[in-house]
Amino acid sequence: LLGYIGIDTIIEQMRKKTMKTGFDFNIMVVGHSGLGKSTLVNTLFKSQVSRKSAGWARDEKIPKTVDIKSVSHVIEEGGVKMKLTIVDTPGFGDQINNDNCWEPISKHINEQYEKFLKEEVNITRKKRIPDTRVHCCLYFISPTGHSLRQLDVEFMKRLSHSVNIIPVIAKSDTMTVEEKQEFKQRVRKELEMNGIEFYPQKEFDDDMEDKSDNDKIREAMPFAVVGSDKEYQVNGKRVLGRKTAWGIVEVENPNHCEFAQLRDFLIRSHLQDLKEVTHNIHYETYRARRLNENGV
Ligand code: GDP
Ligand code: MG
């Protein structure tokens, strides 16, 4: 008769391996210019993801983003190291002609897949391939209260086939509570009507438990966020916020906006899944296409 085999030690083995190697996690921000993308990059780094500054000196105004630019920080917690990279992109929509404005972004995403593929087929393969693939793309929607822009629909439709799209409502401090709820519902409906598959995609729910968890998240999306890299004193605590004539909007206060919800979704509950969907679905689609082209 068999005694204890020790299959359950795999969890400890995986933990040890992750502790040793660490891991990469890459987020990209995309959307119309002026919606607070660069600000949110700083907010993510400055909030509890990492209390480090993201590179701008205090009180310095964030310059207009003109190139695709990555910022990385290694963050360590409980002995586990995560290299978090956020890819900031120039806003689009300023030009008279916005045809093909998704091309530079699409190109960047594919270049990372290509880099990974080259490393994979390399004979002297690295033990651990550095992962620069974009694991999720935060798509910023303008808080108009009206419909999605045609450009947004077009953009998300195209990108959703090559990357995990997470739509967010930008600058949500500009909306009343009712307007926000109404707009969120409207955006969900329009995404569905236009057949835009955002993350977590229904077709990749593993089982009933997964489906029920993800249904709750899908019903709460798109997260209505507020960004800031300025700190204020509120009730004796330093908080990230936006100071207005009528008070301080606290970025990490769940009663004020959904930034904390978004961050917890990205890091605490779905980080591993975002990486897996990127590898198993999006990267695999790219790889299959490339190998086909080469007639292998
Ligand atoms: P980007 O072009 O999308 O990168 O936008 P920026 O981050 O450069 O921000 C454009 C302007 O919007 C700046 O003046 C920011 O201070 C402001 N801003 C950024 N986030 C928010 C927000 O959540 N709410 C409001 N009301 N303004 C914001
Ligand atoms: Mg910018």
UniProtKB/TrEMBL annotation:
GO molecular function, one term: GTP binding
Keywords noted in UniProt: Cytoplasm, GTP-binding, Nucleotide-binding
Compartments, as annotated in UniProt: Cytoplasm
Keyword GTP-binding part of the UniProt annotation: yes
Keyword Cytoplasm: yes
Gene Ontology CC terms, in alphabetical order: cytoplasm
Protein family membership: Belongs to the TRAFAC class TrmE-Era-EngA-EngB-Septin-like GTPase superfamily. Septin GTPase family.
The protein's name: Neuronal-specific septin-3
Species, as recorded: Oryzias sinensis
Residues of the full protein shown: 106 to 401 of 412
